[in-house]
Amino acid sequence: MAMRRETGVQGDLLVTWSEIPRSPGHAFYDKLQNLLIEAGFDAFVEEVCKPYYAPRMGAPSLPPGRYFRMHMVGYFEGIDSERGIVWRCSDSWSLRDFLRLANRDNVPDHSWLSKMRSRLPHEAHEKVFGWVLKLVAERGLVKGERIGVDGSTMEANAALRTIVRRDNGETYRAMLTRMAQESGIETPTIDDLVRLDRKRKGKKLSNEDWASTTDPDARIARMKDGTTHLAYKPEHAVDLDTGVIVAAPIHPADEGDTTTLDPTLEAAARNLADIGLAPTPETPCELVGDKGYYSREGLKDLDGGVWKTRIAEPRPANGYLRWHGDEAARDAVYANRARLKSGIGREAMRRRGEMVERSFAHVLDRGGMRRAWLRGRENVHKRYLIHVAGFNLGVLMRVLFGHGTPREAASLKNALLFVIQTEVAIAIAIVIIADIDGQLAMLAVVATTGVD
């Protein structure tokens, strides 16, 4: 047996496409690709984006189907930046096939994603989100009977040190320097400014007084982890029976839940109407929310309309309520309380805590949107809509194929089928072995039937 010599071997001068080593492909993206092609995704997005493309002049532009697919990859792979999406797509033959790239095509640069996003209007992204919602609804995954609403926070692509006063344009550091000089420190150092800022009385950052120069749409807000940043407020309206997101607007982070509820419900009603599930006063849709959405005026406005409220009621400060002759508000509050205390109401609140929080965990945390790398609320919302569309596609993929993310599909190790027949019965057992968080787990499903 001779040893192979690695030195002195001349490399191939010409390699055909069929001779290049290829991976077997990713099962999740292959199935998702077949699903999108069968539903006519590329033809739809090309028709939607056609008015915003000029006649062919020079090199062709980025196809709209590839543009939206790359943002879906950002959700499924949990990549926050568009530059990272391009790197990931360039590093995988499976993703190149998912993007429908030919053998001589390069993965589009991240600058092309920015150009496409700026040229395509917000309405085009909404239509793509609506197309995915309709695709999911055709499989019976949108009931439109119970809608849970909640909001979260996402950090904007702007730093607090860039804020300036709205009245005179003074920066925060310039204000501290002026205050230090007024207190007797002629040339304050950084440590002096930090010490003064920590000890001064009445310290607060109000959006009425301060604004960001890099992202004027961002607002100062307290995040879910307790820190303070410039942020946005995404709000989800989720079908509690299936977990599908039917509306996902982004609001200014300084607006309360009672303020943002009406625009979110309008978006949810509009999207439900597009798929033939619009709520009506005769067949109202249940609205389930936490205490942040509770207000007398809000309940009074929604009472008798297309939304039947089940909103958690905070405990009154003095133990009882005063109505001052407002009978409409009293009736709305008592009706909401009765619906909330029923068994169906308690079960709906449990579903809201599960389904709505799960949607935020998937889109913001696992999906990479907790930190925005774009600026401008409309600009951020364009990409957020495609991430939410990817989430809804994941729900559909989980129902059709048993896994809703590429990681979940890769964790499936093996599935075994056992059939045991005896004189009195036949037992069928399906054993699934999966990798969950680095540990092997086994799930067994057993069914028995009698023998005649």
Notes on the protein architecture:
The N and C termini lie far apart (64 Å). The chain contains 15 helices and 13 strands. By secondary structure, the protein is α+β, with helices and mostly antiparallel strands. Strand 6 and strand 7 form a beta hairpin. It has 4 domains: 100 residues, no CATH class; 154 residues, no CATH class; 54 residues, no CATH class; 44 residues, no CATH class. Helix 3 crosses helix 14. Strands 1, 2, 5, 6, 7, 8, 9 and 10 form an 8-stranded mixed β-sheet that branches. A 3-stranded antiparallel β-sheet has the order 11-12-13. Strands 3-4 form a two-stranded antiparallel ribbon.
Summary tags:
452 residues, alpha+beta, 4 domains, eight-stranded mixed sheet, three-stranded antiparallel sheet, 13 strands
Number of strands: 13
Helix content: 40-55%
Question: Total helix count?
Answer: 15
| Structural class by secondary-structure content | alpha+beta
| Mean pLDDT, all residues | 86
Shape: globular
Gyration radius over CA: 28 Å
- Rounded to the nearest angstrom, the distance between the terminal CA atoms is 64 Å
Main beta sheet: strand number and arrangement?
8 strands, mixed
Strand-residue proportion: 15-25%
Order of helices and strands: HHHHHHHEEEHHEEEEEHEHEHHHHEEE
The number of domains: 4
Segments where pLDDT lies below 50 for 5+ residues? none
